[in-house]
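My convention is simple: the sequence line spells out the residues, with the fold written below as integer tokens. I include a record here:
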Amino acid sequence: MEFNSWFQKSIARDPKVLVQFHLEEKQVMKLHYSNREDGIRLIKLNGRLDGLGVDGIEVEFIRLCTGDGLLVLVDLSGVSYMSSIGIPMLVGGAKLVFSRNGKMALCKPRSNVEFVLDMAGISQIIPIYKDMKAAVLALTKLSVE
């Protein structure tokens, strides 16, 4: 059965299917973090960094960017989509980190996410690295100097 046909029949039987499909389509943003042995706080983001995603994690993200001399690495490899709404959260976190003599970097953005970051000029504010190893080396080198 073709998807559109199945979808229309499902909606006719149960309108909640549309809501369920929409919720499944909108992946919930998840934030995981760990404090590595090398002193870096690794924040991994997974999902869509859009209005709904930012609302779900912004308070925790900002909390994790608060502290003296933090080394924060934000892994964006799990971010499937990023709208301009995500930019202020990243910049706000970076400002907190930088204001307390810390360092922040972003790493492993997907090409569509990297495009949004480039368009917003984020690399002028927060360094962006293609891989984790380069980001870790840059952060730890920056913290020694």
